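Appendix B, record 7
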Amino acid sequence: MALTALDQLLTQVDGEQQSLPPLDQWNPELSGDMDMRIDKDGRWFHEGGEIERHKLVKLFASILRFEADHGFVLVTPVEKWKIAVAAAPFVGIDVEVEVETEGEQVVWLRTNVDEIVRIDCDHPLRFEQGVPLVQLRKGVDVRLNRACYYHLAEFAYEEKGEFYLRSAGQQFALPS
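Structure tokens (predicted):
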């Protein structure tokens, strides 16, 4: 029996951290809707049950992208399945702030699927309806949990009555 592209990717689940597949090069037709969803806390569910195997969640996360005409999809070279996402698909669970030799501050964020992202011009911090978000990739955001946001706020500075966070040479406004 031939394996589907998704089955082939699943064979990698027990391997070490893989780099992201070339999602921008994969453009199959929409295969349909999958009974899979991501809740507001970044938990993944399939057919009503929570996917508790972290490596499996990480695999699905690695093939998730956002498309303007379909919303969130899981994509392989030959299949594309639409899934439901309640809010931002990923949650920021840890923050590290490092100071480089020139005194420049760099903020790193770790997600619930163990992706690491540097807050910078390509991965900006922004707020939508008071919710702190960092763009992970085009159309795919990370929502910072409360602890992460409070940790970031410790590194904010005030200028003319407004609060800002600096990271990688960029300045991001924080709501007051």
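Remarks on this record: The chain is about 15% helix and 45% strand. The chain has two domains: 21-85, 90-174.
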